[in-house]
Amino acid sequence: MKAHFRFYSMSALLLLALNGCGVMKIKQQTEILESACTITGTIKRNTNQEGPLMAMLFEFHGDLITLEGSLPTNEKGEFLANVTPGSYQIVAFVDSNSDGQYQTNEHAAFDRNNPIITVSSGETAQISPLTITSEVFTDENYDLTNAASKAMKNIGKLTNLDDPIFTRENYKTGMWRPMDFLQTIGGGLFMLQEYQADKTPVIFIHGINGGPEDWHTAIESLDHNKFQPWVFYYPSGLQLDFNSNYLVMAVSNLQERYHFDKVLLAAHSMGGLVARSFVKKFIENHPSKKQLIQLMVTVNSPMNGMRSAAKGVKLSPIIVQSWRDVAEGSDFITDLHNWPWPEHIPYHLIFSFQVGEGSDGVVPLDSQIPMNLQNESTRIYGFINNHVGTLNDKAFLELFNELLLENL
Predict the structure, then answer these.
(1) Over the Cα atoms of the chain, what is R_g?
(2) pLDDT per residue over 12-32, tens digit each?
(3) Continuous segment of H or E residues that includes residue 218
(4) DSSP annotation of 129
C-alpha cells in the first residue's frame, strides 16, 4: 500500500529527503514558494473585436524582458497571476482566434503611466483597470515569441498513460520539489484520446505523492464510446490554491476551444480538496457556465483535513506547502467548508476503511465523511479496502461507471 498521507518522524523525514531529494534544495524551493506573490487586475473591452480577453505577463530581468505566458480572464474581466518576487508588466489583449497567444493584429492595451509592477515576498498587487481599444501592441524590446510554461502548453495536450512523465519518481518530485516538477515536467490537463464532441470529458484528479497512473484501472474501465478521459497532473507539494487556479484556467481554456457543455470530475485523496476548490472558483469566476460541471465523485479524500499534516507543519524541519492546506483547521479547509455545495451538481462521497480500523490506513473516517459533507452529498458509499486499493476494487469500478452513465 502506498501511503499518500503518511507523515514521518523528523529523523525518517530527513532520511527520506536525503535519499534522492536533497534537503537544501527542498528548503530552497520551500522558501521560494512561501514568498509567492499575486498580481490581479481587470480588463475591459472598448472595441468591436471579438474573442476572450487575456492578460500577457512579461517579467523584467535587467534589460531582458521575457514573456512568461498569457492568462485568461473571468466573466468580469478579472485575472490573477501567481508569481515570484520581481518586476512585471501586464499587456491586455483580445484573443480573436482563441489560441491563447498574442498576434499583432489583435487589439491590446497596457498602462502607459505605470507599466512596471514590482512585487515583494507575499505581496498582492492590483493594477489599474486596462481598457482595450483598437490599438495593437508592438515594441521591438518585447519578444512576443510564445514562452509559455510547460504546464500552459500542456493544456489539452494528447498523451497516454505510458508517457514516461507519469512515473513514481516524478510524482515524488512533484511533492518534494514542485518547482523542479514545473520546470522539467510541467504537469497539465492532458487528454488521453483525440477530442471528440460526442463524448463527455471525465477529469481524473490524483492525490499527494500520486499521479494519473493511480486512476489507470478506472480509466480503462470507462465506456470509451461515451466518455473521454482527461487527467489533471500537478505537483502535489504546491499550494492547493495554485493547483485549483490552474485547473480553472485550463478547463476554461478548453471550453473556449471546444465548446463542450458538460464535464464530470473524479478525485482521489487530496485531489478531492483540489476538486472542491476548483468547483468553487469556477462557479465564482464563470457563473454563466455553472451548469458545465455535472458530477463530482471523491474517493477517500481528507475533506476535513488531516491532524497528521498539522503535526508535520509544526514539527518537521522541511515543510511541503500543500501540508499547510491539508492540515486540519487550515484556512484552506475552513474556506471550503464555509462554501455551500451547489445543489445542481450531484456529489457522490466515497469512503473506505480497513476492518478493525477507523481509517483506510491513511485518512481517518471522520475526515473522509464529515457530517456537513454527508448532508451536502447526493449519496455516500463505503468500501472495505485501503487508501489506494479502492481505485482498483471491482465493486467500486462498477459503481463509478454507473454514476457516470447516470449523469450523461
Answers:
(1) 21
(2) 333 344 344 466 677 777 777
(3) helix 216-221
(4) P
